Amino acid sequence: MSSVAELAESRELFVNLTLRELRGKYKRSVLGWTWSLLNPLANMVIFSVVFRYFLKVATTAGDPSGLKVFALWLLCGLLPWNFLSNGMSGSMGTLIANSNLIKKVFFPREILVASNIASWVVSFLLELGVLALVLVVAGSFVLPWLLPVIGLVVVQTLFVVGIGLVLSVLNVYFRDVQHFIGILLQIWFYATPIVYPISYVRDALKHRHVLFTLYKLNPMVRFVEAYRDCLYDRRFPPLLDTVFLVGVSVATLAVGVYVFTKLEPKLAEEL
Amino acid sequence: MADPVVVVDGVSKRFRLYHERNRSLKAAILRAGRVRYDEFWALRDVSLEIEEGITYGLVGENGSGKSTLLKCIAKILRPDDGRIATRGKMAALLELGSGFHPELSGRENVFLNGSILGLSKRDLTARFDDIVGFAGLERFIDQPVKNYSSGMYVRLGFSVAINIDPDVLLVDEVLAVGDAVFQRRCNEKFADFRRAGKTVVIVSHATDALRTMCDRVAWLKDGQVVAEGRSEDVVDDYVDQGHEDRVEVTPEVAESRWGSGEVRLQHVTLVDSAGRETSHPSTGDAVTIRLRYRADKPVAKPVFGLALETLDGTWLWAHHTRDAGFVPDEIVGEGVVDLHVPNLMLQPGTYDLSASVVDYTTTHQYDYLRRCLRFDVEHGTPRESGGFVALGGRWVSDSFVA
Ligand SMILES: Nc1ncnc2c1ncn2[C@@H]1O[C@H](COP(=O)(O)OP(=O)(O)O)[C@@H](O)[C@H]1O
Ligand SMILES: [Mg+2]
């Protein structure tokens, strides 16, 4: 990992690489930026139909917002999930995609991971912005709650960067990591209360508190709940949960930095 | 004496040669985490000091560690032992291509590369026309660089590196590519650069060029410095040791061979119009240069290349299948690639052919056989008076009859 001075010098590069990622994502499509919204929209429609209408998942009422729209409730959990999953897949490929650069020029390599994830943050914020507008139109004046949401995005970004740093180098050493991650992401998705309310799990594990505590160790459980608290219910997430999330994210980032620092010096020859 | 800008102090670099080419997590888990590899020292206890404002050369045979040393100085590789200290802004032009992104246009790559080398957008905008103009790529600058020929690639890379005005410029063998005009302009640029008190570290096979361009030269052999000093002395020693003489090279001779081996060239032959192998075609003959290759596993988009040089090392010609737009999506197993030459426009003399297979970006060598085929051209038609190439021209005059 590079010194702070080197990173500061690379600000321009970071911005440039992030713009490149964004351009790459949106340039090729006629619809441009709106394209990025189509994907979560499709997800939302599919999941709403399957889980709301086929599997009869109950629509949770916002407390105290009083909102009761399954699709919006779903999106409040789905968007943060998409950010995680995009950030993981994106950072996994970024070192290999840029192997030309790594083998030929010196620069702090973590910038590649950071800029990839930064581009997903931009998409995420865009999606959240649209969601907020829809919420307002649906009669839920959510705008003041965007402030704590920004805080959550910052914390989740630390978390995603930490994971991304590990995955990016691991994928250079073992090219089949992405297959494993594909499976992991599927399991993780259903282990997180995105398409079902957490109350289902709480009820199912009513007499098995240990299991429920274990379930809640998955940081995405609390992330999704916290986003829903702010956006859907319009209330603050429990303080303890917030502390837990900050702690886990900082720890994940620290692990990411450690692993990356250990493996980064040999990147140019392993690629 | 000026201060050193680059201090290399007891540097060693070790590479791992993995037994398995495709390392997978699955295999690693099955083998309980052990990844098997051999170790190989590419540099051993190398120490050098490069003073500010001089041009410093590195010579040595293929595989002696020159590129590895340059990459260590450029901070792209981390030495396993020893220390390297550098001062000032550094730009590196490593073997073929300088970190361009194939999908991006030349323009985007200039900005990306420039910002990697530490230039702000404003600086880059100010220098952009110079960079493109020097490379002579005005008409192509908005095309993706994957459509560039290798010469264009190198020209743009060199142009970016030298126009961002580094304090230290590291150059690896790149100037062998590119036409004579560009080479001359590069040399002028080098001269300017040196006059401005900047430092150049250059790796080259061309001993004559090193002798004239460099102030000091280090000679590397098997990863160690065997001689270091004034360029005339070291280069003369190097040449005296028989290094300018061509080593007789066939695919079986190991030193002449280079590359990671996914594709191997098994045979390089010259075939006449009757389909017979020949080593002495005549000027104007139709000949075929035939490459037999073997790829044990599928290899995507390999690029086959040929180069021709004279006995004294003058680079006459090169051509590869990417520039010809003749690249298969994938090869596997054994196969043959032919280059049909309708008229061999070489004058009588002896020539050496080198052959290579590289990846699509032409930055990674699968196999490289330097001077693997020598042939003698005999008198044929046209019969011209001297030199290496036959132009097939015809004398005419309105003023007299002959
Ligand atoms: N990434 C790598 N992995 C393993 N071996 C390498 C790698 N890069 C270079 N080598 C080995 O290191 C030695 C020195 O290579 P190099 O520095 O490229 O030589 P030179 O530039 O003098 O021809 C060679 O034997 C080569 O096989
Ligand atoms: Mg080399």
Largest sheet of chain B: 6 strands, mixed
Helix vs. strand class of chain A: mainly alpha
CATH superfamily of the largest domain in chain B, called what? P-loop containing nucleotide triphosphate hydrolases
Average pLDDT for all residues of chain B: 84
Give the DSSP E fraction of chain B (strand runs of 2 or more residues): 35-45%
Distinct helical segment count of chain B: 8
Q: Per the principal axes of the C-alpha atoms, what is the gross shape of chain A?
A: globular
Task: Give the SSE order of chain A as H and E letters.
Answer: HHHHHHHHHHHHH
> How many strands, which pairing sense, and closed or not: the largest β-sheet of chain A?
none
Q: What's the shape of chain B?
A: globular
Total strands of chain A: the figure is 0
CATH topology of the largest domain in chain B: Rossmann fold
Query: Which spans of chain A have pLDDT < 50 for at least 5 consecutive residues?
Result: none
Mean pLDDT across all residues of chain A, rounded?
90
Tell me which oligomeric state these chains represent.
Answer: heterodimer
Work out the helix count of chain A. 13
Which two chains share the most extensive interface?
A: A-B, 27 and 38 residues
What CATH architecture of the largest domain in chain B would you give? 3-Layer(aba) Sandwich
- Cα separation of the termini of chain A: 18 Å
Radius of gyration of chain A, whole Å: 19 Å
How does this model look, in words?
The complex is a heterodimer of chains A (271) and B (402). Chain A has one domain. Chain A is built from 13 helices and no strands. Chain A has helices spanning 4-9, 11-27, 33-54, 70-97, 99-104, 110-137, 146-173, 177-190, 198-204, 209-215, 219-233, 239-263, 267-270. The radius of gyration of chain A is 19 Å and the shape is globular. With 402 residues, chain B is α+β, with helices and mostly antiparallel strands. Chain B has eight helices and 17 strands. In chain B, the strands form four sheets. In chain B, strands 5-6-7-3-8-9 form a six-stranded mixed sheet, with helices on both faces. In chain B, helix 7 (207-213) runs antiparallel to helix 8. At the A-B interface, helix 2 and helix 5 of A face helix 1 and helix 3 of B. Bound molecules: adenosine-5'-diphosphate and magnesium ion. The site of adenosine-5'-diphosphate has 12 residues of chain B, from strand 1, strand 2 and helix 2.
